[in-house]
Amino acid sequence: MSDGGKQKLEASEAGDPREARRNERLARLKRGASGEFLAALLLVTKGYRILARRHRTPYGEVDIIAVRFGRLAFVEVKQRQTFEDAEAAISTHQARRIADAAEYWVSRQPRYRTHEMGLDAVLVVPRRWPRHLPNVLADV
Fold it and tell me: pLDDT tens-digit profile of 60-99?
């Protein structure tokens, strides 16, 4: 094992808080990726075509951008233990951020300027099929 590997192993055994934070962050990223995968799968089964995942704009990240017929869906994915907790986690700040990011994305994609724009959420909970809430972010 290299010296760098030994140092990391010793740091994690000693309870290095930086290593613990790093491990927690990686675990959150894995959970988020699996939730976003399930959300994308749900949207595809509903007839949507996924245009982008984890799309970054100057206004923030959009988890999923999808299109079905003349409707663009900008989707925030919320993964929690219950549907109620997932829905409660949707904030007005996030809704505004998604709306701004959606406007920015459409301004850069002339092909989609005439499409209806939806600010959706998909709620993901363990051992259940995700729930798609069309335009829920527009109501926040």
Answer: 999 999 999 999 999 999 999 999 999 999 999 999 999 9
Cα-based distances in Å from 79 to 4, 76, 134: 35, 10, 16
Q: Where are the domains positioned within the chain?
A: 3-139
CA distance 127 to 82: 10
Cβ atoms 60, 98 nearer than 8 A: yes
Distances (CA, A) of 137 to 38, 54, 70, 92: 19, 17, 19, 8
| Dist. CA 95–CA 103, nearest whole Å | 12
CATH topology of domain 3-139: Trna Endonuclease; Chain: A, domain 1 (3.40.1350)
Determine contact, residues 106/117, Cβ cutoff 8 Å. Answer: yes
36-52 per-position pLDDT tens digit = 999 999 999 999 999 99
C-alpha torsion sign, points 126, 94, 119, 67: negative
SS3 132: strand
